[in-house]
Amino acid sequence: MVDAVVIPLLKIVIVLVATLTAVSYMVLLERKVIAWTQARLGPMRVGPHGILQPIADALKLMIKEDITPARADRWVFTLAPILAMVPALIVYAVIPFGPAVEVFGRPVTLYITDINVGLLYVVSVTSVGVYGIILAGYASNSKYPMLASLRASAQLISYEVAVTLTLVSVVLVAGTLSLVGIVEAQREAHVWYLFAQPVAFALIVIGGLAETNRAPFDMPEAEQELTGGFHTEYSGMRFALFFLAEYANMIVVSSVATTLFLGGYLRPFPNVAAFGVLDIVPSWMWFLLKSFAFLYFFIWIRATLPRYRYDQLMRLGWKVLIPIAIANLVVTAIVRVLLVARVGADG
Amino acid sequence: METPAVHHGAMFDTDELVINMGPQHPSTHGVLRVVLRLDGETVVDADVVIGYLHRGIEKLSENRSYTQVILLTDRMDYVAAATNNVGYCETVEKLMGIEVPRRARYMRTLVCELQRIASHCLWLGTHAMDAGAMTVFLYAFRERELILDLFEEYCGARLTYNSMRIGGLPQEIPPGWDRKVREFCTIMDGKLVEYEELLTHNRIWRERTKGIGVIDGAAAMAIGLSGPSLRGSGVPRDLRRDEPYAAYDEMDFDVPIGLAGDTYDRYLVRMEEFRQSLRIIRQAIDGMPEGPIVGRVPRLIKPPAGETYHAIESPKGELGFFIVSDGRSMSPYRVRVRPPSFCNLQALPQLIKGHLIADVVVLIGSIDIVLGEVDR
């Protein structure tokens, strides 16, 4: 009973609360980091160094008037932000924050579940998120959001292909779709897949930026062109959901990339006993640190680069990333087959 | 605006989408309104609507004394108020035949070039911002702030300076001001490198600006472009060199020109103008002569009957004043301004046709308009 229901429920609650907190503080972090990059201070008023800013923001958004445009499609208009937010949250079900540990003498795994098609689940669930954006643009019955939602769908389709093909090559190396399995495979391989699959890593970083609509690929919400893009007509809590979904997606991409390429919850050099002192830091902390590095990179990119144009982005996706992803996949497969053949011959 | 449906194929009915960009849009630099007809995201046609900031400055001038008009000119190109002041004052001086002392002419040159840098900072920041590069905006404004501080110290104001008088200057430069200007030049040298690191060799920036809004020299002249927008198309016309005013004939500087006539070249031209302006500022400070700052100006400013046109090189292009005096009244009979922003804006529909929405905002930034000057 306890193992089957209580512990998973507790884990879900903890992950949800932690994620939502992380998302709201992600917003603060982004504002702070960008402010520092730009020789500003960022939020300073609410709490010391603006530490309570997310709470103030949340309160403000909750008490704002929630407007539905007169000629909008009411149901879809309401559904869209939910559709954007939910997939971003349920992905966390399979992300391993750590291995099994003992809590009060009871073995507890630091992930909600480990399914044998974990990666497939991640890919499928995250691609549902774009429907939120498409429907939001469509339901607003407004021109700028409509253009934005068209951009979003085109962008997502082109990058989804490249990213998924890249993930296949990682799966080939690891030999499993389970996220925990992939982390453990990196332990056995004595190497982070960042070094085994550097091309794949680069592709995932670029594709991840594009899929989460982050700068320099933030066309669907290009403020300077489309006045906010798909969420132009949204206000109050429904706007907040889109906002949170974007950051939740960023965290998802960072977590997945950490799991696949940076050894997930493993400490650096997990097999070298000399570095055993690093075990003082618990596994989930390693995971958080690595994900944080990723998130910081996302913000850094946003503060530095101008925005790509829509057609250039499509060209980059179809003419550069997808061919590279396919080539990477083929090379990985060939090397893999040759290695297996050699190991087989040895055995 | 009604648009007829355009049929592209037998299978689908596709309509052009008419979209209103502005007058309240984050990237139209004030209250410009562009009515775009889109085919997908491609601009088929663009219609520029202006007049949202019209205050009737030219007409107002007819009811003000010649001196009072100076502060109306502040409100035209409000990001480069000092150059407007200089342009107007020099026109009146030309009308009245007033000789301006050399020290005042040097000061005017110095102030104009500081103003050019401030104006270009604003252009650079907003232009980059429109392309999505946020950080450059804040950096450019940080340096513009230094210039505003210098102006504040000189004439007390930060935006609308009222910093010139007919026949010279309102006041001497404060003690130690020239040293501060020199310090600013040193700071700016370093900051320019910083901007260029972020943009000039940035792959995305180049892809966003190269080949966008190409206009060749002949077409640019035909439409009346001036200033950096014209020089970007390879026409080496700069009033500072071709028809020197203030003390430009004593200054040594280059006039950068572009080759391709696209957004990137216009960008490069303005970036080089930063450097040339710094060069002129240094020369103006080093060679600043001693002497009076106001020439022999009659107590009553009442030009003889006649008319005159005088143009200067404002940061945005040829800023000309045409003033008619009836010789009897204390105020101009007619003032007509040839604003560079207004004339440059005429090129916009031509430039954006066939490009994407994302390019529209980049092109608006590229021709560097100020709506206060367009509408007056």
Break the fold down into its secondary structure elements and pairings.
The complex is a heterodimer of chains A (347) and B (376).
Chain A (H helix, E strand, L loop, with lengths): L1 H36 L15 H11 L10 H17 L9 E4 L2 E4 L8 H22 L3 H32 L4 H11 L3 H4 L1 H14 L11 H4 L9 H26 L21 H22 L5 H37 L1
Antiparallel strand pairs in A: 1-2
Chain B lengths: L16 E5 L11 E7 L2 E8 L7 H5 L4 H8 L7 H16 L5 H29 L3 H22 L21 H22 L4 H7 L7 H7 L4 H4 L7 H4 L20 H24 L19 E9 L2 E9 L8 E5 L1 H6 L2 H5 L4 H10 L4 H5 L1
Antiparallel strand pairs in B: 1-2, 2-3, 4-5, 5-6
Helix pairs in contact in B: 2-3, 3-4, 4-5, 4-11, 4-14, 5-6, 6-11
How would you explain this protein's 3D organization?
The complex is a heterodimer of chains A (347) and B (376). Chain A has 347 residues and is mainly alpha-helical. Chain A has helices at 2-37, 53-63, 74-90, 118-139, 143-174, 179-189, 193-196, 198-211, 223-226, 236-261, 283-304, 310-346, and strands at 100-103, 106-109. Chain A has twelve helices and two strands. In chain A, strand 1 (100-103) and strand 2 (106-109) form a beta hairpin. The longest helix of chain A has 37 residues, at 310-346. The mean pLDDT of chain A is 82. Chain B has 376 residues and is mainly α. Chain B is 46% helix and 11% strand. Chain B is built from 15 helices and six strands. In chain B, helix 2 packs antiparallel against helix 3 (81-96), helix 4 (102-130) runs antiparallel to helix 11 and helix 6 runs antiparallel to helix 11 (263-286). The A-B interface holds A 34, 37-40, 143-144, 147, 151, 215-216, 218-219, 222-227, 302-312 and B 17, 19, 25-27, 38, 41, 128-135, 138-139, 142, 198-199, 202, 204-205, 207-208, 356-361.
Notable traits:
heterodimer, A: 347 residues, mainly alpha, two-stranded antiparallel ribbon, 12 helices, 2 strands, 68% helix, B: 376 residues, three-stranded antiparallel beta sheet, 15 helices, 46% helix, 11% strand, globular, disordered N terminus
